[in-house]
Design goal:
The complex is a heterodimer of chains A (451) and B (235).
Chain A lengths: L3 H14 L5 E4 L3 H4 L6 E5 L4 E8 L2 E5 L9 H11 L4 E9 L8 H7 L7 E11 L2 E2 L5 H11 L6 E3 L3 E3 L2 H14 L5 E4 L5 E5 L2 E14 L2 E15 L2 E8 L5 H12 L4 E2 L12 E2 L5 E6 L1 E3 L1 E2 L2 E2 L1 E8 L2 E9 L2 E3 L2 E5 L7 H4 L2 H4 L18 E12 L2 E11 L10 E8 L7 E8 L2 H15 L5 E2 L1
Parallel strand pairs in A: 1-11, 6-8, 15-22
Antiparallel strand pairs in A: 2-9, 2-10, 3-4, 3-5, 5-6, 6-7, 10-11, 12-13, 12-16, 12-17, 13-14, 14-21, 17-24, 18-23, 19-20, 21-22, 25-26, 25-29, 26-27, 27-28
Chain B lengths: L2 E6 L5 E8 L20 E2 L8 H5 L6 H13 L12 E2 L21 E4 L5 E5 L15 E8 H4 L3 E2 L2 E6 L3 H17 L1 E6 L7 E2 L6 E11 L2 E9 L1 E2 L4
Antiparallel strand pairs in B: 1-2, 2-9, 3-4, 5-6, 7-10, 8-14, 9-13, 10-12, 11-12, 12-13
Classes of the chains: A alpha+beta (451), B alpha+beta (235).
């Protein structure tokens, strides 16, 4: 693993395959969800960003899972001084440090560009060291290496662990560190096997925007709710859907309540059961609990719809960075709250996690230009069959459009499948023109007349 | 995603473990002349607004309507959206629609029983089944060993899951199960309830028959739960 490309692939795989596999557990589920093990190694969860510390010949950097450097020279100098000739890839959490205060990921984002800020890294894993690769289960060996390499620095240090014997001890430690000292949560690992991420339950108030029916085998009961936050008055960002936490009585009553406030929408938001949500007037507020909240997943930044609500109709404005809740549970309707920036605004999210920055919207697409067009007709028993061949230049951006499109229409008014279509795309003008020519040659036989 | 499963051994001892689906990627892949792998992308080919009935603006067009449409096609290009068709599509979601492709907001699900000729012999309300693989439920070791050579042409093994230990005790527990099956070169039929019920992995999910396969090599083991909901029948 010497080239930067290989390293970047490895750290991306780590993010997708290992870091996202921590099992989320609520603080009140420690006794039931954490496995019974001989020993537990626990540490306080640092609320920052995942980072990779790379020391490989010419590749020396501290970066995120996309390989983008955090641009903190003092940390890179400290890292290289600390590791010396120990070549390898180490994994840590980069965070904004404030004495006697809990870490917050949004503080890191705020302070990262301020060179005077105190940014530190807690190292908690090794992917490779001295040409030796490590698996998930080599924790004792990895721990020894981490403690010996990162023992002297305050800026970059091995995350401190406490060894415990029972789940009751974990519960006590959770109460002390999280409930009393307001830390974000605990990371619990055994010598092998899964790693648990224990956090207190998160609680939110969201605007209800839609519902769908069909719970178990009863098509009249509520199945899921669609909810979001107010970005402005009558402008909403979709956050997610919730399907658990409802009593049967809730499911009945809410359907009869929402049936009366159905509204139109020019977009479709799909529920977990492949049925679109029926959208409703955004007046009701739901209290939702979740184990965790994330702003990116293995596909990258989470992005969801921004909807405007005008004249009793939702219309989609754009997609924007959003979040996903892990294991959302409906707790009840908040009749005392209303859909507003104060009660159900973006602060419901930003007090817990920062939203990713919005990418600049692509410029408006220029109109496509038809480059080639040929139309052929054949008459049979009074009916006209038509074949049309096109090539057009899309003039769209590379991310969303190919440069050229070949399109073929084959229409026969007497055939069962009357209108057949064929499409091929290419970024090469020569290739698309060749496709155009070949398709006409193979498809147009005797009896067809060019118009 | 790691999921939980509770399973019992031949001594009726149970343990809570984790499992994950096992998927092996294809060993064969497409390549271009220069050896590079082609990139797959979904594109928009047509839209609801441009389907034939929408273009004819009629739900039940006559043959005359279809015949007349040929002239429209010759004189205009209204069947193509030049700004939309060819556009790349990212993540897509499937929905139920009517025949005219309008979304359906409520559905009644029925189960159709077909005979070997594919004819419907019964239509009924489907049974809603709750998951029975964890929590209060334990997957039972039925002691019904099925030699590997006898099973392969009896059922269609549609998916498989690897069952994994979580600590030293459960390593021994699973290793012994795998060794037993490995030594007997057999699958073990497993089930919910008293051992006869099919396995249901998710609430509202389909029922499956479960067959455990075990392999050992030195100190390592592999315990695979194969599942099936189809049998082979002679024709």
């Amino acid at each position: 693993m010497n080239s930067l490309i290989q390293i970047k692939k490895t750290i991306k795989d780590y993010k997708n395959l290992r870091a996202s596999r921590y099992i989320p557990v609520r603080g009140d589920e420690i006794g039931t969800r954490v496995f019974e093990l001989d020993k537990y190694y626990i540490s306080t969860k640092i609320d920052g960003h995942l980072c990779f510390l790379i020391n490989y010949k010419d590749n020396k950097l501290i970066c995120n899972y996309n390989g983008n450097s955090f641009n903190r020279n003092e940390l890179l100098e400290e890292f290289l001084k600390t590791v010396g000739d120990n070549e390898g890839v180490f994994v840590g959490e980069i965070f904004s440090y404030k004495e006697n205060d809990r870490t917050r990921s949004f503080e890191l984002k705020k302070h990262l560009s301020d060179k005077k800020s105190d940014i530190r890294i807690g190292v908690f894993d090794i992917i490779e060291s001295q040409n030796e690769t490590f698996s998930e289960n080599d924790w004792i060996i990895k721990k020894k290496i981490l403690n010996s390499v990162f023992s002297k620095s305050e800026l970059i240090f091995a995350v401190k662990e406490l060894e415990l014997k029972s789940r009751k001890d974990i519960q006590n430690e959770f109460n002390s560190r999280v409930n009393e000292k307001n830390e974000e949560g605990l990371i619990v690992r055994g010598e092998s096997g899964p790693v648990f991420k224990i956090k207190p339950t998160l609680n939110f108030d969201f605007v209800i925007m839609g519902y769908v029916v069909g719970y178990t085998d009863d098509p009249t009961l509520l199945k899921e709710l669609l909810f979001g936050v107010n970005l402005e008055k009558d402008k909403f960002l979709i956050i997610g859907k919730v399907s658990s936490g409802f009593s049967i009585d809730d499911r009945k009553k809410m359907v009869s309540k929402f049936e009366k406030i159905q509204v139109d929408a020019n977009i479709i938001e799909v529920s977990g059961s492949k049925i679109p949500f029926t959208m409703v007037d955004p007046t009701h507020v739901a209290e939702i609990d979740a184990i965790d909240i994330i702003n990116s997943n293995t596909s990258g930044i989470i992005s969801k719809s921004v909807l405007k609500f005008k004249n009793k109709e939702y219309s989609k404005e754009k997609n924007s960075p959003s979040v996903s809740l892990i294991s959302p549970i409906f707790k009840g309707l908040r009749e005392d709250k209303k859909s507003s920036i104060e009660d159900t605004g973006l602060n419901q999210i930003s007090r817990v996690i920062d939203l990713n920055e919005e990418k600049e919207a692509a410029a408006l697409k220029k109109i496509s230009k038809i480059i080639c067009k040929e139309v052929y007709v054949k008459e049979m028993k009074g009916a006209k069959m038509v074949k049309k061949f096109f090539v057009w230049e899309t003039n769209g951006d590379d991310t969303n459009y190919p440069k050229f499109v070949f399109y073929q229409i084959d229409y026969s008014p007497t055939r069962a499948d009357k209108l057949k279509r064929e499409i091929k795309v290419s970024n090469s003008k020569d290739q698309i023109e060749q496709i155009f020519k070949q398709n006409i040659e193979s498809d147009i036989k005797s009896g067809w007349n060019k118009i | 995603m790691i999921r939980y499963i509770k399973i019992e051994d031949s001594n009726n001892r149970d343990a809570e473990l984790t499992f994950k689906s096992v998927r092996t990627g294809s060993t064969v892949s497409l390549a271009m002349e220069n050896g590079e792998k082609p990139l797959s992308k979904k594109i928009i080919k047509s839209s609801k607004e441009k389907n034939l009935k929408s273009l004819l603006k009629k739900n039940d067009p006559s043959q005359e309507d279809y015949n007349n449409f040929s002239e429209d096609l010759i004189s205009k290009d209204s069947e193509i959206d030049f700004e939309l068709f060819g556009k790349f599509i990212g993540k897509t979601e499937r929905i139920y629609t009517t025949e005219s492709f309008d979304p359906v907001f409520n559905i009644n699900v029925t189960e159709k029983i077909l005979n070997p000729k594919g004819e419907v012999i019964e239509e009924r309300k489907p049974n809603y089944l709750n998951s029975n693989i964890s929590g209060e439920n334990i997957i039972k070791w039925t002691k019904k060993y099925i030699p590997k050579m006898k099973l392969y042409n009896k059922v269609v093994l549609s998916s498989k899951y690897q069952i994994k230990h979580v600590n030293g005790l459960t390593y021994d527990f699973l290793y012994n199960m795998a060794k037993d099956l490995n030594d007997k070169n057999s699958f073990m039929m497993v089930g919910g309830g008293k051992g006869n019920d099919p396995l249901v992995f998710n609430d509202g999910g389909k029922p499956f028959r479960g067959f455990l396969e075990g392999r050992v090599k030195d100190k390592s083991y592999c315990l695979i739960l194969h599942i099936s909901n189809q049998e082979f029948k002679g024709v």
